[in-house]
Design brief:
Layout (H helix, E strand, L loop, with lengths): L2 E3 L4 E3 L9 H9 L7 E5 L5 H9 L3 E6 L2 H12 L7 E5 L11 E6 L13 H7 L7 H11 E12 H13 L2 E12 L6 E8 L6 E8 L7 H7 L6
Parallel strand pairs: 3-4, 3-6, 4-5, 6-7, 8-10
Antiparallel strand pairs: 1-2, 7-9, 8-9
């Protein structure tokens, strides 16, 4: 078993359905947090997002995953970190998950492949496809049930799927307040989008764009700046 090393923490990710990846790291780097935030991470996998948010200074994170091995690996990664008293992993179906609190921030790198072929591994399908575990409607309903009235919901989605997700969220009075468009290679079309939702229609939507790689294959200076607080140099 090998560990993935960040600047201020390390973690195992070989048993989780979802490994450490660019989507989660860029979402964790982008999201704005407050030191008083109580956070829920839906579909935590190996627990990389809670560890990143703890580094950024949130008060507490409850991490939920329907996959037992993922939840266990996240728990072990939390226990090995300097934030072990702030991070908690739960093996649970978030659609039935309850706590005696509502959350300031809900974050998710969710199952989002609606228009794609499935692989043979059931655990990985469950983690990556909306029709095998957590549908977009399920996710939005869960957010509505667990988010504070002045809370924020932050999610990363493929650009195509975001066009389906945003109208569904608006039906529940959740609107995009901020978004970051992610371009994999300079000159290419966007393939991911980070979204922050809040209740009620915003006066304006804060929009930014991040190009990950230049045409020659090297990382852009903007990308390197965004991840510099987390990745080893």
């Amino acid at each position: 078993m090998s560990r993935f090393h960040f600047k201020h923490f390390s973690l195992y990710h070989d048993r989780s359905t979802m490994k450490v990846g660019t989507d989660a790291v860029l979402l964790g780097a982008w999201v704005k947090v407050k030191p008083t935030d109580w956070v829920l991470d839906i579909g935590t996998g190996c627990g990389v997002l809670p560890l990143m948010l703890a580094q950024k200074g949130v008060a507490k994170v409850h991490a939920v995953d329907i996959d037992a091995a993922s939840a266990q690996e996240a728990a072990e990664n939390f226990d090995a970190s300097q934030w072990r008293e702030q991070l908690f992993s739960f093996h649970a179906d978030v659609r039935k998950f309850t706590m005696q609190c509502a959350y300031d921030l809900i974050i998710s790198n969710p199952p989002f492949f609606v228009h794609s072929f499935k692989c043979d591994a059931d655990r990985r399908n469950q983690a990556r496809h909306t029709d095998t575990s957590l549908t977009f409607r399920d996710l939005i309903d869960t957010v509505r049930r667990l988010l504070k009235s002045d809370g924020r919901f932050v999610v990363v989605l493929p650009e195509r799927e975001s066009q389906e997700f945003i109208p569904l969220a608006e039906q529940s009075n959740l609107y995009v307040y901020s978004k970051e468009i992610l371009v994999p290679v300079e000159g290419k079309n966007p393939n991911r989008i980070n979204l922050e939702f809040r209740y009620g229609v915003p006066d304006r939507v804060e929009t930014s764009e991040l190009v990950i790689r230049l045409g020659n294959g090297s990382f852009s200076k903007d990308y390197e700046s965004v991840v510099s607080a987390f990745y080893l140099g």
